[in-house]
Amino acid sequence: MSEEDFRTLCILFVLICVVVLMFLFSFYELCVVPCCERRLSDDVQIVLETYNGGGGGCVICQEEYKDGEDKAALIACNHKFHTVCVATWLMNNDTCPLCRTYVV
Ligand SMILES: [Zn+2]
Ligand SMILES: [Zn+2]
Hints:
This protein is an alpha+beta fold. The protein has helices at residues 3-37, 83-92, and strands at 46-50, 57-58, 63-64, 70-74, 80-82. The strands form 2 sheets. It has a 3-stranded antiparallel β-sheet with strand order 1-4-5. The protein has a two-stranded antiparallel sheet with strand order 2-3. Strand 2 (57-58) and strand 3 (63-64) form a beta hairpin.
């Protein structure tokens, strides 16, 4: 094999590597990222309210609501949870933590 051939092979190899990397990257962009970031977009309909007495607690973190705390009510079933708790929950689930109604 001449030096010229060897150089051509090297260039071909690098080109193939670049194409494979670009393919993997676009696969990651198209498939992996949307799956992870798909949730809690505009799809989930909630009503935000501020707690001001009345008792009850959030079933996700098992804590009582405190005055002035943010709560979110799911439109689909009207169950209420801490905004932060329900946002975290809906990153991995499509359903209400309490009654399993689909909220997405
Ligand atoms: Zn909570
Ligand atoms: Zn519910």
